[in-house]
Amino acid sequence: MALSREQLAQRVAREMKDGYYVNLGIGIPTLVANYVPDGMEVMLQSENGLLGMGPFPTEDELDADMINAGKQTVTAATGASIFSSAESFAMIRGGHVDLTVLGAFEVDVQGNIASYMIPGKLIKGMGGAMDLVAGADNIIVTMTHASKHGESKLLTKCTLPLTGAGCIKKVVTDLAFIEIKDGKFWLIERAPGVSVKEIIEKTAGELMVPKEVPEMQF
Amino acid sequence: MSGFNKVVSSYQEAMAGLEDGMTVIAGGFGLCGIPENLIQEIKNKGTKELTFVSNNCGVDGFGLGVLLEDRQIKKMISSYVGENKLFEEQLLAGDLEVELTPQGTLAEKMRAGGAGIPAFYTATGYGTPVGEGKEVKEFNGRKYIMEESITGEFAIVKAWKADTYGNLIYRHTAQNFNPMAATAGKITVVEVEEIVEPGELDPTQIHTPGIYVDRVILGTFEKRIEQRTVRTA
User: Is 0.95 surpassed by the pTM of this model?
Assistant: First the structure.
């Protein structure tokens, strides 16, 4: 069975470590915050200018001056700091954020990522995604393995305009955990009940498959 | 106005001197921390052919979105747009030009502009459409593109508190792009929720020193929320 959005977020959450500063993108990445392992402290960075993002406010706490990068009203966690967007991107670009999780349309064997623009459709913009992928060393891309029409999103070469070049090393899809190195995809784990055959069929770029492919643990 | 007193008493006075074709740097992220009344004054004034440097372009009927209604904006320099229908229409009709700029690069362009740095190198956008046509330079084995800084004839800023000398404090994440915008305008206009006497703000807590600020006006704010997300207590 392919992973649900929640399971995908749960698997990504296992990549967090105690004391990590983490930036979570919009969509599935946001859900990762719900699965921080017990006893572990992580601090969420929101690129508009908040380090230490707390939960949504109660009606009483609601404050128009307190939002996250998705423009949702939020609270500040204990020990949070708030600063300008220049300061925020200094910490992103300067490589101070320990883990960045974001979605994508396509990823290729060179570690290129396309996530912000589909030519012919309305272009809304890249927001902070280009800075995030350029600045972080530890990035996880979350996406479905293939489109609704069955077309692979793990390619030999991205077809859409890039968000970043040569910057992606880990991808968690609804079917597999894949690493990217030496110009190839490497199959690390498969979703429970998903066959290696199906993953191979749905991966367009060159995929290295070990003899044994363990199932994901949550 | 006398000495260091920057306080003006009307919005007309606050935006005096803004002319067709000028570049305006605006603070705010989404609808948070936007100079909503200064934007309204630009609408009332009817100034046209403006270039706006702002992370977003408001929504239909609020924020910079209101300036689209009478086609006052010629060009937007932003990281994320299209939260409003009118924007989409004018863009597709070719009536509006957009220069998409990564959010961190946009913040740094304003910061550098205000700090007298004409350009800087960043890895952001290398190998992407953003990097096309820009100078590439390698430092320590990694490739960077050169990005030029931005300044404007005007900057419009929203702060929480000011003293009459123009020292500013922002509130929560309404800070966002405002401190950089404040430095990057030839004339920087700030609207605030409260104006106090010099000496009443703790000097160590000031986000924007008054040297960057030319005019301060006291406003009342709607503070519209774009994505109202709450949890049950």
Answer: yes
